Structure formats: structure tokens, C-alpha cells
Amino acid sequence: MAVELPIEVHDKLARISAITRRELASLAAEAVTDYVDRQLSIFEKIQEGFDDIRAGRVFSHEEVMAGMQAIIDRAEVKRAGKG
Q: What is the DSSP string of the chain?
């Protein structure tokens, strides 16, 4: 696989290569791997969300807000007890 990079990106990658004394190709492969893993994780989580919706595993806005407020309230009580 060949990938064309904008010159600015290539130059930045070359600077990192020089600083870290790592091969340019190795850094590029690592960057692509990190990007692919991150994107795939996002897409999988989105799919899980759609699956939850289809299965009826959902909460109302009010339920979520009440849960968040309870977490905030507990944190404030805990923080006040430490002070």
C-alpha cells in the first residue's frame, strides 16, 4: 500500500523521526494503526448504540439527567466531608 501525504504532514513526520531516531515508515505505520483502531472503536460503539435502541435498552432524558445529578450530589457531599 502506498499513501500520499501532504508535504506538511510528511515534514512533521520527518521531524518526529529525527527527534525520536525512529524510521519514518515505522512512525507512519503506527500513526495509521492508531487512527484505524480509534475509528473502528468509534464505529463499533455507534453500532452498539443502534443495537441498544433496536432492543429497547434506552433511558429517557429525565432519567439520565437525574442519574447525573445524583452523581454530582454524591461528589459534592464527599468533597465537603474532606474539607
A: ------HHHHHHHHHHHHHHT--HHHHHHHHHHHHHHHHHHHHHHHHHHHHHHHHT----HHHHHHHHHHHHHHHHHHHHHH-
